[in-house]
Amino acid sequence: MATVDQLSSQEAIALEDKYGAHNYHPLPVVLSRGEGVYVWDAEGKRYYDFLSAYSAVNQGHCHPRIVNAMTEQAKTLTLTSRAFYNDTLGPYEKYVTEYFGFDKVLPMNTGAEAVETAIKLARKWAYEKKGVAEHEAQIIVCSNNFHGRTTTIISFSNDEDARKNFGPYTPGFIKIEYDDVHALEEALKSSKTIAGFLVEPIQGEAGVYTPNDDYMRKAQALCNEHNVLFIADEIQTGIARTGALLAVCGNCTCEGHCEKQESYATPDILILGKALSGGAYPVSAVLANDPIMEVIKPGQHGSTFGGNPIAGAVATEALEVVKDEHLAQNARTLGNLFREKMNEYIENSTIVNLVRGRGLLNAILINDTEDSSTAWDICMSLRDNGLLAKPTHGNIIRFAPPLVMNEEQLLDCVSIITKTLKAFEK
Ligand SMILES: *Cc1c(COP(=O)(O)O)cnc(C)c1O
User: What burial letters (b/e) apply to 68-93, b meaning 16+ CB within 10 Å?
Assistant: First the structure.
């Protein structure tokens, strides 16, 4: 049987095509190695990674400290289940809760599991603390949201691909427009049975849709006023991606939980995933204070792998790296530079309408219809020029490189991107 290192790109694609479910439409590039901001294909060609596995690899590919923490723990103890205690979970829980400033954490593995956990937590809180009648709790969500792929989560998606023929859908969700404080206020006033407001501080999958600076702050104030939990899904935006530790931290530069009042909002429930492990391992978390988290009792929620020793070791190291390497500051500085350079280009462009984002979570809007292939064609051409990015929602291209990038590399990437776009100008 052929070993992986003998496989050509074409062979690898053929195997996935034949033996794997076709639930993705990847850009045709086969990656076999990664280091920092770079990945290499099966033929040894090097690329800048401008997706970072949807912001999971904020700390860069195969960060030596994270890989070391993972392999050391893998040699020692990998999994006990929560049927027994282990000596890595407690220290990790202490570390992660202090890092983000919450009383407690509920550890899970994937992002969707953490969102499910937050939904269960909010509902249980509503019944047991707020006094909502059983089965009546509702959660407000936003249109064009992306929170994962479980049956319940896709129930409140409005992406037809994600939803169609996967029903019947889970009830109990109210959908409002994103970045619309008035709509939130109306929804909160309309019912006494609302448990929470689940929101992405920037809608990543929707195309890095970046709301007004005061949206989060006003949304939280309204939630507080109505005794409704403010639930932030920071799976994609969190952990330094947007130039602060969390997107809800706004322009706060402290890089950790702080008492400064500069942050946009403090969620009642914070959902993390992706970069919590630096892309080394599936690690997700739900953080909340005791009055909320205490509603979950033994036997009521769990996961065989959630909080396993490797996850704890990896997540702790991944978060240390974020602090030690000042990744939030770097994302802020390079993000400003990136948008400045792209705006200069856009001034004289007919193919790009705008660039938007915060920190190193950005997107450009291609001047074509959503069903056109222009954005895809641009990404193919970027690939040929040594940079990997993917369209989201047809005519939008997301640019989210690892946060360990330096200024010289960023400028190199800007020149690849502008050179590529020039060829598409009409
Ligand atoms: C990626 C993502 C999820 C889902 O995470 P998975 O690990 O893929 O289940 C949920 N919410 C947001 C905002 C995401 O970007």
Answer: ebbeebeeeeeeeebeeebebbeebb
